[in-house]
Amino acid sequence: MKLVDLPERPIQCMNLVGREWSTPQGSSSLPVISPYTGKQIGTVPLSGPEAVSDAIQRSVSAFPAWRNTPIKERCQHLFRFRELALLNIDKLANTAAMESGKTVAEAKAGILKGLEVVEFALSLQNMSHGGILEVSRGVTCHSVREPLGVVVGITPFNFPAMVPLWMYPIALALGNCFILKPSEKVPLTSQLVGDLLRTAGIPPGVFSVVNGDRATVEALITHPEVRAVGFVGSTAAAQSVYATATSQGKRALCLGGAKNSVILVPDADEAIATSGVVASFTGCAGQRCMAASLLLAVGPVDHLIAKIAESAEALKPGDCLGAIIDRAAYERICNAIDIAAQDGAKILVDGRSAKAPVGYEGGIWLGPTIIDRANIDMECAQLEIFGPVLTIVRVNSLSEALAIEARSQYGNATSVFTTSGAVARQVAARASAGMVGINIGVPVPREPFSFGGTKQSKFGSGDITGMSAVEFWSALKKVTTKWEETQGDVGSPENWMS
Predict the structure, then answer these.
(1) Taking Cα atoms as reference points, which of 193, 4, 1, 2 lies closest to residue 98?
(2) pLDDT tens per residue across span 143-194
(3) In this structure, are residues 94 and 6 in contact, taking their beta carbons and an 8 Å threshold?
């Protein structure tokens, strides 16, 4: 069975600078490997400081005309881009899948979720971002939302299309020039996106793609012309990027990792809980910051855990279960499972013995794994494994489960599976995470509700989508106006703003 369409020969990735695609001079490169086969599907250049500076200067030159373009005209380009993306969604989804390891269906769902952000960005043209008020006799105040200038988005391997779509539509609609630095592990999708935006009529320099590695990121976020940085990745990387960017006086919003808790109580609906938990920890092969990775089992829920284990064990790699991004990640995940067993946990479902799909034996595949009877202090219960692995910790009460959730260093998502409204309300009120699910294993908000966590899952204020993103990618200018002297109640021309 064919899972993805692979290119006949490796694709040479380039940078989009100005109007044209080009390979940065003197750059080294890395191979792009498909997790499906373990074989090379592309080559990505590593942009040095000169290439970074060139892209930024092109954006600086493009900014004055773009910021002075009325928002309704800017949005026309995004309207066309959305239509082009929908027309080409199969190609986009296949490319995102073959380079990231997710299934084509998962890739397509991510693109559709990302296009919701485009739709939100398009709505900005019909919103009033200011308003006017007479604040004193003959004196009015109004506000104007203005773009920042050249801004940068640095995105991870696990969502080559969706995560960038969280950033550039809103930033572009507001009048910024945007530079995308995709993960060097998944640069191919961004090549397609850049072509679609060019076809949609985005002016040269307004949207750029700069490929590279950690050194490229450093050059981008420290360049004096860059005004803001959006980042999604691991907690360690998010913290580092945030510290570097803010030390340079730039705005930064950096989303990190997670260890999301799912609270399972005895009265949970069996079908909803089973499908919700399994889909959450196995979807995208567990390689997403919203995956349920810690199940807090409250009281007598063995009947529910048995169903979850049965359903998970039935999932086979390639059949609604994608591949692991690379060999190093596979070994790290397997090592975490080994340590859990050594520490005394029970491996209820072991995905390490799962067979690769026929024809994809060279790929990097791991089946669903469930670690039961873990202690909350074990590494498997504390660290983000970032694979299709669920750790179960048994607790005696809902209060104990919520206390564990509150102690977590992360704060992306918390879910509860219950048929009790009182339990649901208590979890929603007491959970420390930024996103809460009631009988939903992956509580990603739909637009216009924004995406963002708390604690070590986010560095910076606000969220990456929704109105928080509007605040992040723009500045609010306040204008106070007076045209003539006015008489006060006592006949004096004086007032406090005279």
Answers:
(1) 4
(2) 999 999 999 999 999 999 999 999 999 999 999 999 999 999 999 999 999 9
(3) no
Of 13, 177, 254, 289, the active-site residue reads: 289
DSSP three-state, residue 39: coil
Total domains present in the chain = 2
What's the angle, vertex CA 292, arms to CA 289 and CA 295, rounded to 5? 145
Plot region of 456 (φ>0 → left; ψ -120 to 50 → alpha; else → beta): alpha
Closest to 277 measured CA to CA, from 260, 256, 300: 260
CA distance 187 to 40: 13
Backbone phi and psi for residue 292, each to the nearest 5 degrees, phi listed first? -75, 115
- What pLDDT is attached to residue 127? 86
Q: How many residues are recorded in the chain?
A: 498
What DSSP designation does 123 have? H
Which CATH number do you get for residue 79? 3.40.605.10
Task: Please check whether residue 5 lies inside any domain of the structure.
Answer: no
Distances (CA, A) of 26 to 51, 72, 180, 217, 357: 9, 41, 21, 18, 40
Structure tokens at 267: 């009265």
- Summarize the confidence of residues 38-47 as an average pLDDT: 98
Return the beta strands (E) in 185-237 as ranges: 207-209, 226-232
Instruction: Verify whether residue 289 is a known catalytic residue.
Output: yes
Q: Are residues 215 and 151 part of one domain? A: yes
Is the per-residue pLDDT at 66 higher than 60? yes
- Tally of CB atoms within 10 A around 493: 12
Number of H helices, E strands in the chain: 15, 23
CA distance linking residue 405 with residue 411, whole number of Å: 9
What is the domain-level CATH number for residue 405? 3.40.309.10
* Amino acid at site 36: Y
User: Alpha helices of 145-212 — where are they, by DSSP H?
Assistant: 162-173, 188-199
Token pair belonging to 258:
């997670």
Q: Are residues 252 and 264 in the same domain?
A: no
- Give the Cβ contact number of residue 64 at 10 Å: 11
